């Protein structure tokens, strides 16, 4: 499968689905400037996140922590989560099952 086009997720954040099947989706999120946010939200999918570059402050169900390149973690289904970009970079998120709303 070829990656889908890059789309604005919420300026200054862009999103690109780079692989998907009904059971799994891989998505690259690029945060282009300090202070860019992934707003607090939740979804039924289990999500794993890998920090490819940059630094971020994440909140998962009220717990805050900072991550940097090479870090990874799992976000449980329905957990309320979001992040703030501390240094521009890219997150690689995996969702199971696939997030059809991103197609």
UniProtKB/TrEMBL annotation:
Which Gene3D superfamilies does the protein's record reference? Jelly Rolls
Q: Where is the Cupin type-2 domain?
A: 34-87
Xref: InterPro entries: Bacilysin_H2HPP_isomerase, Cupin_2, KdgF, RmlC-like_jellyroll, RmlC_Cupin_sf
**PANTHER family named in the record:** H2HPP ISOMERASE (PTHR40112:SF1)
This protein is called what? Cupin
Provide the species name. Answer: Cohaesibacter celericrescens
Organism taxonomic ancestry: Bacteria, Pseudomonadati, Pseudomonadota, Alphaproteobacteria, Hyphomicrobiales
């Amino acid at each position: 499968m070829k990656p889908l086009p890059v789309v604005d997720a919420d300026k200054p954040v862009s999103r690109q689905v780079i692989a998907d099947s009904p059971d799994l989706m891989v998505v690259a999120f690029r945060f282009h400037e300090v202070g860019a946010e992934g707003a607090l939200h939740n979804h039924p999918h289990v999500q794993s996140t890998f920090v490819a570059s940059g630094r971020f402050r994440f909140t998962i169900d009220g717990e805050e922590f900072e991550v940097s390149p090479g870090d990874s973690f799992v976000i449980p289904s329905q957990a309320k989560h979001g992040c703030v970009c501390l240094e521009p970079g890219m997150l690689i998120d995996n969702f199971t099952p696939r997030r059809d709303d991103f197609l």
